[in-house]
Amino acid sequence: MIHKLKKIFNKNTPKSDTFRLIGNINWLALDRIVRMGGGVFVNAAVSRYLGPESMGKWDTALAFMGVYVVFSALGSERILTRDLVDATENKKSEILGTAAITRIISSLVFSIICAFSILFLNTDDPEQVTVGIIISIGIFFQAADIITYFYQANLLSKRIVQTKTIAFIVSSVLKLILIYLNAELIAFASTYLIEVGLSSILLLRMYQKNENRGIRSWTFSFIEAQKQLKEGGPLLISGLAYMIYVRADQLMIGEMLTKTDVGVYSRAIKLYEIPMAIYGIFATTLFPKLTSLFKDDERRFMEGYKLSATLMTFIAYLGVIVTWLVGQYVILVLYGEQYSGAIKVLNVLMIGIVFLYNAGQRGNYLLLNGLYNIIIINAVLSAVLNIVLNYYLIPKYGILGAAWASVITQFFVLELSNLFFKGTRNIFYIQLKALFLIHIHRYIYQIKNKI
Question: Any stretches that span the bilayer, and where are they (predicted)?
């Protein structure tokens, strides 16, 4: 697949940039391997030690935090990455400086709001409140993520990976030490704060070391701030709706069932996030080059869309089959019998991976075409539909109902909704053909000839 992508980009991209693109994917892949490999086993050890109920409290706090992180980001990630791709040095300083001020303010505000929200909703559970407050502080440290947008725009994910991997390893070692010391849940929650804090510090040091004048060159502009907030608004709404959609199941399980059920369900989510992370590598890395390609040759961009949809769908089908065959053994070996309820949940959730991979470039397509209205409508509908489905399915089917709610929502938002809008009707037919693997033999044959 990478060889085919390389061919698509080569005619409009210098050879050196093509190798930077592939290198960027390799570094992101390394990051995912470290996190998926080490992270899964460390998480399994912690899950066995703490048990489903305590893990449920931790996961509930993380779910709350995830929603407020979207608020604090102000919908800026893809907007900033897009603007930084071709910006002059002075403009880059203005973009980053303006984003830094607005992000620091928003992160501080929503960190406080998150803490008070958890306090208000869990007055009868002091441990849950303490864990929630610790996790909410991490929102403030994530203001440093604007530096990652700069590196993404310049295909320098190597530097992001280096800093975040160090922080991840430190956090993982601390968790293992805490297990040895028979520590309480609150101590484990603190390792999250240490990880995001250390990652932010290392990112800042990396930027200061490698960029001329570092953050001292950053400037603030009210006009640029207005532009970022205006353009980020639709993406903020869609991002918030998406985060509500992906976190609603855990939050509603916690309210309608028990924290133990949250803990069991979240173990399936942890394994489900592995193929989601792989998908994220391609989406993040290809976006800067897709932006340039879209401006130069839309036909070639659509060729890449067809290729990506077909091959990624094929990969997703393979992933589903493998998971259905060995998933139950993986869960029992990693987490133990106390989390056996996660087996069926994982099998159901993996169906949604097919739709996610099939629509892998859909978000980029909407953004590049300026179809913000569709982005917002889809995002809001996904949140509303998922909440409604969870409301009816969780009481009847338990955590398995929440899994089906997610899959049904993914099918509607990523596939069926394309038919309802004129601007996405063309990709509906592209994705539909890819869903049935039409022309897969042709693409595989082309790739085989390139190897």
Answer: 100-121, 133-151, 163-181, 276-294, 314-335, 342-359, 371-392, 399-421
Model pTM score: 0.78
Measured between alpha carbons, how far is residue 345 from residues 72, 163, 264, 335, 348 in Å? 31, 34, 9, 14, 5
286 in Cβ contact with 307 (< 8 Å)? no
Residue 101 burial (10 A CB sphere; 0-12, 13-18, 19+): middle
Count structural domains, the chain.
1
Range of the domain at 200: 2-450
Burial class of residue 395, CB neighbours in 10 A (0-12, 13-18, 19+): exposed
d(CA 378, CA 372): 10
Tens digit of each residue's pLDDT (9 = 90 or more) over 25-77: 555 666 666 676 677 889 999 999 999 999 999 998 998 888 888 888 888 77
- Average pLDDT, stretch 291-314? 78
- Would you give the distance in Å from CA 359 to the centre of its chain? 15
User: Could you tell me the pLDDT band of residue 301, with boundaries at 50, 70 and 90?
Assistant: confident
